[in-house]
Amino acid sequence: MARHSYETGRLNLPFVGIATFGKRPYVEDWSKIDADIAILGAPFDFGTQFRSGARFGPRSVREASTLFSFGHAGAYDHEDDAVYLGGDVRIVDIGDADIVHTDTETSHANIEAGVRAILKAGALPVVIGGDHSINIPCIRAFDETCAKDGPIHIVQIDAHLDFVDVRHGVRHGHGNPMRRAAEKDFVSGITALGIRNVSSTTQDGYEAARAMGDDILSVRQVRRLGTEGVLSRLPKGARIYVTIDIDGFDPSIAPGTGTPSHGGFLYYEVLEILQGIAREHDVVGIDLVEVAPDYDPAGSTPILAAQVLLNFLGFIFHERAKRA
Amino acid sequence: MARHSYETGRLNLPFVGIATFGKRPYVEDWSKIDADIAILGAPFDFGTQFRSGARFGPRSVREASTLFSFGHAGAYDHEDDAVYLGGDVRIVDIGDADIVHTDTETSHANIEAGVRAILKAGALPVVIGGDHSINIPCIRAFDETCAKDGPIHIVQIDAHLDFVDVRHGVRHGHGNPMRRAAEKDFVSGITALGIRNVSSTTQDGYEAARAMGDDILSVRQVRRLGTEGVLSRLPKGARIYVTIDIDGFDPSIAPGTGTPSHGGFLYYEVLEILQGIAREHDVVGIDLVEVAPDYDPAGSTPILAAQVLLNFLGFIFHERAKRA
Amino acid sequence: MARHSYETGRLNLPFVGIATFGKRPYVEDWSKIDADIAILGAPFDFGTQFRSGARFGPRSVREASTLFSFGHAGAYDHEDDAVYLGGDVRIVDIGDADIVHTDTETSHANIEAGVRAILKAGALPVVIGGDHSINIPCIRAFDETCAKDGPIHIVQIDAHLDFVDVRHGVRHGHGNPMRRAAEKDFVSGITALGIRNVSSTTQDGYEAARAMGDDILSVRQVRRLGTEGVLSRLPKGARIYVTIDIDGFDPSIAPGTGTPSHGGFLYYEVLEILQGIAREHDVVGIDLVEVAPDYDPAGSTPILAAQVLLNFLGFIFHERAKRA
Amino acid sequence: MARHSYETGRLNLPFVGIATFGKRPYVEDWSKIDADIAILGAPFDFGTQFRSGARFGPRSVREASTLFSFGHAGAYDHEDDAVYLGGDVRIVDIGDADIVHTDTETSHANIEAGVRAILKAGALPVVIGGDHSINIPCIRAFDETCAKDGPIHIVQIDAHLDFVDVRHGVRHGHGNPMRRAAEKDFVSGITALGIRNVSSTTQDGYEAARAMGDDILSVRQVRRLGTEGVLSRLPKGARIYVTIDIDGFDPSIAPGTGTPSHGGFLYYEVLEILQGIAREHDVVGIDLVEVAPDYDPAGSTPILAAQVLLNFLGFIFHERAKRA
Amino acid sequence: MARHSYETGRLNLPFVGIATFGKRPYVEDWSKIDADIAILGAPFDFGTQFRSGARFGPRSVREASTLFSFGHAGAYDHEDDAVYLGGDVRIVDIGDADIVHTDTETSHANIEAGVRAILKAGALPVVIGGDHSINIPCIRAFDETCAKDGPIHIVQIDAHLDFVDVRHGVRHGHGNPMRRAAEKDFVSGITALGIRNVSSTTQDGYEAARAMGDDILSVRQVRRLGTEGVLSRLPKGARIYVTIDIDGFDPSIAPGTGTPSHGGFLYYEVLEILQGIAREHDVVGIDLVEVAPDYDPAGSTPILAAQVLLNFLGFIFHERAKRA
Amino acid sequence: MARHSYETGRLNLPFVGIATFGKRPYVEDWSKIDADIAILGAPFDFGTQFRSGARFGPRSVREASTLFSFGHAGAYDHEDDAVYLGGDVRIVDIGDADIVHTDTETSHANIEAGVRAILKAGALPVVIGGDHSINIPCIRAFDETCAKDGPIHIVQIDAHLDFVDVRHGVRHGHGNPMRRAAEKDFVSGITALGIRNVSSTTQDGYEAARAMGDDILSVRQVRRLGTEGVLSRLPKGARIYVTIDIDGFDPSIAPGTGTPSHGGFLYYEVLEILQGIAREHDVVGIDLVEVAPDYDPAGSTPILAAQVLLNFLGFIFHERAKRA
Predict the structure, then answer these.
(1) pLDDT by residue (tens digit) across D127-137?
(2) E5, E15, E92, E291, best to mutate vs chain B, most B CBs in 10 Å
(3) Which one, of A324, A217, A316, lies nearest residue A271 by Cα?
(4) Does the model's ipTM exceed the 0.90 cut?
(5) What is the interface size between A and F, counted as CB pairs within 8 Å?
(6) Are D223 and D214 in contact (CB under 8 A)?
(7) What is the CATH number of the domain that holds E263?
(8) EC no. (chains A, B, C, D, E, F) (predicted)?
């Protein structure tokens, strides 16, 4: 079998063509998802507390993902001597959840419906935000599968703890998602990586988080533990949901976000943790949030998001293939 | 009396100092407003249907307003041979209404409270958005004064009609304000200037608008009528509230906005209408909305907003002084 | 019949969803085009003589076009009291021609193949560049239909004459397309509007152009003639192909282009000529070129391109419907 | 004689090569200027009262000028049916005056020395700022030639009057140059075009200006007078020095400047006045100031500056040739 | 006691409200400073040798500081398990020193007056530049308190040595401050951290610096020494003045500056040194300079400046409280 | 001898003067190169597969190089206690190779001619791209000198392997240069540093590369080996040609490039390898490619390029002087 099909088809350079995620097929009818991975955009940003603009996260990550779509039959990584996301991994892009301006609850409900549709189809949901509040409906959608398959453990890459309970009546802003998740009985715990400096969560919030099963590690603490040390803190065999707030990364590589915080993770630090999770756990859901592309004229931030997602998906399905 | 005080005080160049509107005093306690004009920021942008970012409108217009704050005793305009906004016009900046992320109703209520406080103090309210939905609480706040002093007529400078009734449950987005205003019994009518090209308002909406007393004129229609022709369509002696959506202006001078529409007004076209309104009517309230500064690295948009507001305020109080 | 379908479907705000042109269906298989209008991207920019970047023109115009995609059943224009591009006009987006880096001839051939496919399907081809050299394969593709239906007359909106014959061996750069077109026996003439200031065409080139049937008018000459005066110079009943170089517009509204030239057209000047052409002629093909979005952080240029195209298409099919 | 030399030399596209003004020769030794026109950069910006950055004006205008440097033997203008700046007009770029940070007086003295060197060589000095204060040393340098050839009349294109006498000790900032010029006995008068809105000049300043021979016209006044009306106000036969503050133009085409003011001139308005001056007067010196390129990512402002300068120089030497 | 007051007051999100430093009170009258910390802006940038724009440093750092102003009762840091800058630390913003364009000496004198006023009030002066030359008046202002309390030792975070004596007459540019400081008898020494690559200081300058008590360490040397190694080189018990040139940091996190130099410090490297200084020394003054925000559209640089300052102030007053 | 000439000449601040490389003399006539180092621009970017814009690489690196041109007699580096590039090292800038739009082969031939001219003059060629395809003509130009002096070994700093043979007919795009080099009999081998993540080279390409003598190391592999470990893999005594693709560096410091890839080299990692190469090898040619400045408004990328080149050149000639 030919390892690629350049000579029989189009050259299809990255800058050419409609920008779906990875230039994969677009499936408009959510009752007809037939894939291993389904990408859903969640362009909601009314939950932000500083700069808005994450509504353009999905489009920007889709466009950036085309930079990594050179090959027709997977991407060869010489460090791992592996071809990732070859023709055997079926990815589809199901477009965006319908967002209703001024209406947080309806918008969230539409996101939840999208994730439910993906789960029902047996595909891995990958949701691109939007602000971090979109994690709330994503997690809600897991109630049924968890009832069947057992609880999920959340790995959060983030600068901020996002563990505010209710403040001025706000329960579903981008400062609340981890609290909302911790309240679910099908969430067994949270490992929060990269948490640093001030945020909207107060000292009370940290105390509550720890009491509710949140293992909080700063960037420097993660560095001291090393990749393996971090992985060893995850519950063995747990089914993992990964939520990546792009501001968990350092502003040097992720400036296009609403609430940047210096002192964040560099690329390989996160990549190697994700590769370890893929190796040791079943990853059941992913969201990546808070890419606000218009604050980053160079486009580094959506490129980072796309590069992390495509590599992580490659790791997950490479391991699945090995296990199969 | 000295016409300025450069020699006795600070030089106070535009780039120097805290950026309140026009570098005027900041009044934190809304029960202590003692001024002719009070500036209120309304940094709300969950009502936008395309690009967000109008939440930074108030800060950007304040900073831009410092460019026009050279003088200590008013600004001399050689075309009019007049000194505007001299020491006799007391302007204060009362800061921003408190905005609650994800919560449109509470945020709007806080804006309404600010406008009520200004009206109670007998000052002219000037509200800087935020998206155009913030006009809704601004108008609501006029119920009491209108009960006393009679209804208001709204002059809207805008690319879009903003006359959507309810859609997907949304009543308070940036496509709805003029419908909400027209529903008030203390709003006697609307004159909409600059309306052009497609928008969220459908044909139904235009028909409803006309039926509810909206006089709709495009940019080209305004040009054909001329300033005096436009002014003659306003009800004689009406108390006027002016709402300026910065996208009423052309994208060439107002690119920093959420939903730009080509073919808009140029500077003098609006300025001369505003000067005519100031001359012939009592102006009782102003809002200026939809400045999204981060889409305009050159800063032309907030500078336009500040220049229009400062000139308009100058005209209003110059005419008031002549009448007095 | 409902005039729109907001209540039965998605709200589908402009910032939501995959960015095809006007959010219309994507047709990947060029042998299956069944539509009135087919959009083709031609992301080729090796023909530019100053700033490159027009390769991102198609993606940027697609994304900008979503701003004008509020309605589900056409767009109401209150100035014309008409609904444009209603459900009866079928538009599809057929993606981009395959571009081969370093290889101008193959890239042009792929563009030509796309236009031929559209013409074969009986749809109106609308090609979004890329630099102006992509007009060369577009025109080439008309040989067969012209053999059948008669020649075409080209209306060119542009700052530059683009009438260089061959220079340093270059025949297919962005300075050559009108010369290449004039050489075709199925091109009956050219009307060049907006030509001004220096460009790569020398005095010889102007003389050759006039000798080969090019009617050259500057912006100021167009203004003196007026819309009707310009329209009257077009051959009566001619089948018209319109090529719009975005730099025909003024840099104030089209800064995102490779070779800006001050003193260009404003929005309504071009719009009204296009509306007149739609009224009086059969429009058989359109290209819009030289949008280089990364030079315009505000996005005014792709928004202009989308607004012009959508209005022009609306005019064409509105007139077609009236004639039918 | 060949009208151009494309086939015998380099193609030399605009983006290729060292960026001197118009890609003309660089003359480092100011005692060896042998040319009709000499370009001098004056990258001084300590005189600005709002945004700095005009120090990069000279480099940015040089780079932009390459866009208009297609031809080897002058530029053909089809509107005028004329070839401008052909091989018979010798232009050199003598680089920049040496600027000493923190030291206004020494920097100004170095600019003055450059202009004196150009005048001594019998060339037309064209100085690119830098902020408008650099006009002060430019004018100073004319004392000797004026003693010989008679006084100069200054035509100022500007948003601001720049007629502040002394304030807080400042005599040589960008708000002072016209006052300093008016004090010279070899300056017979000033015609100030485009003056509008507030600036650092107070009412006193306007009165003083008029008393000292300054004919002040706003943009709207210029429009009412028309080009010929404006030209008729210039003293017949006067030797003219033209100082162009780029902020005299509208922010829509000149956003990259320190103190933008809406309501400015459009391109042809200034171009036609300059063409009229070239036709009717001897132009003895030019400066163009306040281009702050980093505020204009699209580059429209330096392109405008280069386009205006190259056209104006073309007009001047075309008329000189006709007179000769 | 409640740890915060969210429920009783405003939510006061970061993007809401007038941008004073940390949203702390503005004190206009410098004779009425009653605080532990007073922030002074010094928007002076005529001393720069490459890109200007540091005049907008103070406003940009103030605006960025609001991102870290979530809490009403201090900021909880989970790594240190400490609440920093709680209600017991009184911070005021006293606005900007008056800057006079073209006049370095007067501008510097006004900065000096501001620092003297702060010192007289017994508060810690924190001066936000402006270019590094503003350190000169800051240091001058310490003569009296040093006469009383003993000399100061300066810790300089910087890419450049800034030890030029006099060149072309310039004594007070941004290349001179450390030389000027070293000349004071109340400055006991300098520790310069981060110095790298070429700068305006010549080999002579380095020799003079060492001779005058300057301990010069590059980024790599600091890394080899480690935080404790660096701290051990500071004179025990010395009263410390810290001057932070933002270009001491790496351009990856501080691109918005006038003279960037690759190979700079990362965030924690500086933070941990500052935390060590706070622990072991009495910090008597701080300046942070060379933030030129308009070169950083993402805003990372002012965010870094605000984050460093707020953390450093937190450390200082946390240690003071422990000692008390 | 004076170590600098500040007092006898101009101050010549970085922002002053014509932007040749390092402000060194411009030599237009390529038959008259008399220097140790000659800089050639190669503004060709038709070979790029994602974002174009590298055509402005040469101008941007030249302008950035002026930031490091403070001194008149070399630059003192305190870490090495050495003065680099003193008056004894003669650098000239020979401008750009002539680029012909749409024509890859002619453009490459012109680049080759430039490098041949430099080699013929006995100077070290330093070519600034342009995209990486320009390495192809650079290497071709070495055939004659290699025939005389022996083969060259290439050290490639890059994110991508660039080892595509022929695809869709493309042999000279930016994905092909290392394959083209490896085919030459005068290229003895390649050491590729920084290669990571997906690119246009497929698994086949990696296998071919290794078979043809390419030693491929990722960023993480280089880090594990350390500088000395990497240097030890280079063939002892080999004459080295260094090709630096700026995307070998991390996007945090080199965002302005066409195909950014996260996880790249930091500054000192590359600098120390280059310093080691200079110490241990004869460096016979350098190119630095893929700087696309318009994607980096902060200018960090061209500054990095200039800083790396100037330091590397300093190291090379410092070592040459020691050997001599």
Answers:
(1) 999 999 999 99
(2) E15
(3) A316
(4) yes
(5) 93
(6) no
(7) 3.40.800.10
(8) 3.5.3.11
